[in-house]
Hints:
Blueprint: E1 4-9, E2 11-12, E3 15-16, H1 18-31, E4 35-42, H2 49-54, E5 59-64, H3 73-87, E6 91-95, H4 98-111, E7 116-119, E8 121-123, E9 130-135, E10 140-144, E11 151-155, E12 171-174, E13 204-208, H5 215-227, E14 231-234, H6 236-240, E15 261-265, H7 271-274, E16 282-287, E17 300-303, H8 306-319
Parallel strand pairs: 1-4, 1-6, 4-5, 5-12, 6-11, 7-11, 13-14, 13-15, 15-16, 16-17
Antiparallel strand pairs: 2-3, 8-9, 9-10
Helix pairs in contact: 3-4, 5-8
Protein name: Electron transfer flavoprotein subunit alpha
GO molecular function: electron transfer activity; flavin adenine dinucleotide binding
Pfam families: ETF, ETF_alpha
Amino acid sequence: MAKKVLVLGETREGSLRNVSFEAIAAAKKISGGGEVVGVLLGDSVADFGAELIAYGADRVITVEHPHLKSYTSDGYGQAFMAVVEQESPEGLVFGHTAVGKDLAPKIASKLQAGLISDVTDIEGEGADAVFIRPIFSGKAFEKVKLKEGIDFITVRANNIAPLEKQERSGDVSSLSVDITNLRTIIKNVVRKSAEGVDLSEAKVIVAGGRGVKSADGFEQLHELANLLGGAVGASRGACDADYCDYSLQIGQTGKVVTPDLYIAAGISGAIQHMAGMSNSKVIVAINKDPEANIFKVADYGIVGDLFEVIPMLTEEFKKV
Ligand code: FAD
């Protein structure tokens, strides 16, 4: 049976997040030839509708309201539920982002629906779709299927390939929703790390640990990351030592990332760190201790001093 699937399109700093396009590709599979409807919530988001359609949404619904300028679970919850009531979908797909992780359980509980979170792949289509997600901090994968009700999933960034961007036609309509009784109203957002590539969606991450030894030491990681069009990440050891901000922390209590390339410099490979990066496609570890745990998950290991290796890599990449 073909299904109607709603996809939450997420914007960040004036553009759509890539995970929204990946969510559309996931929704296409769940729909099994049915309809994929993009949903945009914000104070001024209608202009993003055409881009969601270019990535495969059949049509887009926008809900615009001054109280939706910044995410709040109350505001987005009310707006999204209004779209659900209008559309009666058989599937819902959100990115497994900070917003998706917060909003999806709220919507699932309102709909009394099951929720499969952090999906990294989908086998089959339509009613036969089976969802694959990591468990035990990425050590194993399970295949899950909901027995009944709405197929509601969140998708991990950088795992499900988006459809090719093409000129496609589709309707962008707006739904007027009265956002009331908010417990939180966000007046202003101050970001600590507003610049550069978004760590959770970066294709290349250069991460540093306690072995980087200082905030100045992180400068060379930034240089290499910039050269590769990537982002800088860190172990908790490095954050605790105040070499960098906690917003860069990767791991069990930090961000979970799946870049194409993860360069770990001066990181020992504690299980809590690996929980956040071990599913990266290619892992390069640089550590002066040949017994370091990080080498167990590395595709390429460089035993050496990062203060020699990182500048050498930077110089070589400059030649490419
Ligand atoms: P270290 O373990 O001190 O390793 C430093 C490494 O640098 C060593 O392997 C050393 O050989 C190498 N080194 C030193 N100098 C050089 C050099 N010049 N060149 C090359 N290599 C060098 N950690 C996380 O990262 N993320 C989390 O989300 C997280 N969550 C946690 C949650 C809980 C509940 C707990 C208890 C811990 C958590 N931790 C987390 C902490 C984790 O257990 C480790 O303490 C931490 O990851 C260690 O960071 P590190 O690898 O940078 O430091």
